[in-house]
Amino acid sequence: MHEPQASVPHTAASSANSANPSSSHGETLVEVIPGGAVSGTIQPPGSKSLTNRALICAAFASGTSRLTGALRSEDTEVMIEALRTIGLDIHVSEGGRSIQVNNSSTRSTSAAQPDPHSLFIANSGTTIRFLTAALSAAGGRYKLHGVDRMHERPIGDLVDAIVPIMNGTIHAESTNGCPPVVIDSAGWHAGEINVGGSVSSQYLSGLMMAAPIAAAFADSDSTRTTRIAVKGELVSRPYVDMTAKVIESFGGAVTTVTSGLAAEQTVAFDISSSVNTDGYGYRGLDYAIEPDASAASYFWAAAAISGGSVTVTGLTRDAMQGDVGFVDVLEKMGCELHEDANGITVTGRPLRGIDIDMNAISDTVQTLAVVALFADGPTRVRGVAHNRFKETDRIGDLACELNKLGASVTEHEDGLTITPPADGIKGLHGAVLETYHDHRMAMSLSLAGLRIAGVKIKNPSCTAKTYPEYFADLEKLIGRSHHWSH
Ligand SMILES: O=C(O)C1=C[C@@H](OP(=O)(O)O)[C@@H](O)[C@H](O)C1
Ligand SMILES: C=C(OP(=O)(O)O)C(=O)O
Question: Residue ranges under compositional bias (Low complexity) (predicted)?
Answer without folding.
Answer: 12-24
